[in-house]
Amino acid sequence: DWSMDPAMLAEWTDFHAKVDALPELERDVFTMHFFLKMPQSEVAKVLGMEPKQVSRTWFTACVKLSDYLPTMSG
């Protein structure tokens, strides 16, 4: 169980801290799409954004989190 692995727990803790440190809009888009599994089109509706803006915001957030995303498998 990965949740009992101290190294993985530390990694997830760091990852969540990085997500929390994103600017508000990037954090909202990332949280809805990554954690809540909402399609980007639905994120756009909820946040009152154009779908292309959601895509750009998602991309920007992923770039900022890129050091963490490849290792997040659990």
Q: How is this structure best described in words?
A:
With 74 residues, the protein is mainly α. 66% of the residues lie in helices and 0% in strands. The chain has four helices and no strands. The protein has helices at 6-20, 24-35, 40-47, 51-64. Helix 2 (24-35) crosses helix 4. The longest helix is centred in the first third of the chain and has 15 residues, at 6-20. The termini are close together. The model has no long low-confidence stretch (mean pLDDT 89).
Radius of gyration, in angstroms, nearest whole number: 13 Å
Estimate what percentage of residues fall within beta strands: under 5%
Calculate the terminal CA-CA distance, rounded to whole Å: 9 Å
Helix content: 55-70%
- Secondary-structure element order, N to C: HHHH
Number of strands: 0
Secondary structure blueprint with pairings:
Elements: H1 6-20, H2 24-35, H3 40-47, H4 51-64
Helix pairs in contact: 2-4, 3-4
